[in-house]
Amino acid sequence: MTIAEPAQDGDWRLFRGDGEPRDTPFPAAPPWRRFDRREPDATRPYLIDAEAADVVNAALHLRRPLLVTGQPGTGKSSLAHAVAHELGLGRVLQWPVNSRSTLQDALYQYDAVGRLREAGLRRDTDGTQPGIGAYLRLGPLGSALAPRTRRPDRPRVLLIDELDKGDVDLPNDLLTVFEEGEFAIPELVRLGDDDTPVHVQTDDPDETAPVTKGRVRCAEFPVVVITSNGERDFPAAFLRRCVRLDLPDPDERRLRQIVTAHLGADALDGMDDLLREFLGRRAAGELATDQLLNAVFLRKGGVQLDAGALLDAVLHRLGGAV
Fold first, then answer.
1. Which residue from 127, 122, 39, 143 is spatially nearest to 81, judged by alpha carbons?
2. Which of 102, 111, 247, 95 has the alpha carbon at shortest distance from 160?
3. pLDDT at 310
4. Are residues 190 and 174 in the same domain?
5. Closest by alpha carbon to 13, among 277, 303, 306?
6. How confident is the model over 194-236, as pLDDT tens digits?
7. Which one, of 211, 191, 197, 236, lies nearest residue 67 by Cα?
8. Diameter over CA atoms, the chain
9. Which of 18, 165, 248, 264 could cross-link with 4 by S-S, CB 3.0 to 4.6 Å?
């Protein structure tokens, strides 16, 4: 067993493994691991070449979903936040897809049990019935299609993250919604032809959206960014309705720009060995850019390990054995 070293001034170690409690001050977290902001930090530049930016612009003009593929760490998810920031489109609505995700979940949820319970409580008190709108919540896709109460002429930005992890039928399920730009909420359709809108909850905190005659229809088709790690192919009908963008692994010049953008102009001072080690180990699909950022951040924070040992700590092959 290795005995923990005694504390020394300037030592980067927080945990020593010697069982002794200490009032140890914590260093600042990496910029990408800070959670004291309401929204992700979109002020840092998103680095993309002119050809890729033109593909994004084509999707914006055509009002088509943008299907972004590439290895983990190439900036697929960050692209949605960059578009929202540059165009002033507000908060990004996010739908992280997994094997249990359904189209229904992304459109809306209805808490029938909660409404029934509330109706029973009111029947025993004042005899009123609870409004249905309080028990309906639009999901991220439903909220993206709902007209905005402020600036209704401006679209929302929706990030559908890792669609390839979803059920094989999910892309086809999305086609009708993408083509029609609307969907029905049967629980509201059954209320009849009353033109009085029902205000339902949305994916935005403390905001509601009016729904008339049970149909949600967009005024402006949302900016939809769909990411995929390429784990499986999508149906041809789905691909035809998307504008496709493949983000390659960044080369050395782009890696230097990314590190500088996240950690400052002097971030790479004395880091040439780390960068060389990273590029030497990287092969398609094995390492991600954020792992290099982690290694540079630790070195800047005083971690006293050589390049090889430092990279061994944070650079695990994607999908490989732990």
1. 39
2. 95
3. 67
4. yes
5. 303
6. 788 999 999 998 889 999 999 999 989 999 999 998 888 999 9
7. 236
8. 76
9. 18
